[in-house]
Amino acid sequence: FRDVPKNAWYRKSVEFVYVNGYMNGMSDTQFAPKSTVTRGMMVTVLYRIAGAPDVSASDAAYFSDSQGKYYTDAVGWAKANGIVNGISATRFGPGNNITRQDAMTIFYRYAVEYLGMDGSCSGDLSGFVDSGKVSGYARDAISWAVDRGIMNGAAGNGGMMLSPKNHLTRAEAAKLLQSLVLLILESV
Question: Whole-angstrom distance between the N-terminal and C-terminal Cα of the chain?
Fold first, then answer.
C-alpha cells in the first residue's frame, strides 16, 4: 500500500491483517490508515477471524439497516452470538464510526462470550490520565484489553491516554486486531 510507509508504527500490523485476509485495502494501492472504522467493518473483520461461519436467514435479517450489504452475514452472526447490540431494537448502525471503547467491548465479547476465553481483569485503569472518560459499559472490556496487552494507550496530555471516545482509525484497528489474534493463538 502506497499510504503505509515502511517506518510507520502500524506497518507490520497492516501487513498482518491484510496477508491473513482480515482487513482489505480501500483500493489495490491504498489502505487508508487514518480513515475511521465503521461498526459494519469491525464486525466483518471479527467474522472473518472466526472463519466466516454459516448464518441463518433469520439471524442475517435481524437488523433492518444491515440487509444486502457486505456485512449482512457478519452483523447477523455477531448479534446471534452476543457479540454486538444494536443502536436500537431494529437498527445496528453499520455505517456509524466506531469508538475505541466500543471496539474493545466487541473484542471482549468476542473473546469471552464467543471463544470462551478468561474474562477476568484487574480493573485498574488508574495509570491512564483519561480513565475517567471510559463509559461504565466499557470499563471491564477496556480493563481486560489493557491487562491482555491488546490496548496500551498513547502518550498525550501529560501521561498515557486511552482516548476511549475517539473514533478508531484503520491503523489502530490493524494493531489492535493483530494483538487480539495473537492472544487467541496463545490461548489455544
Answer: 32
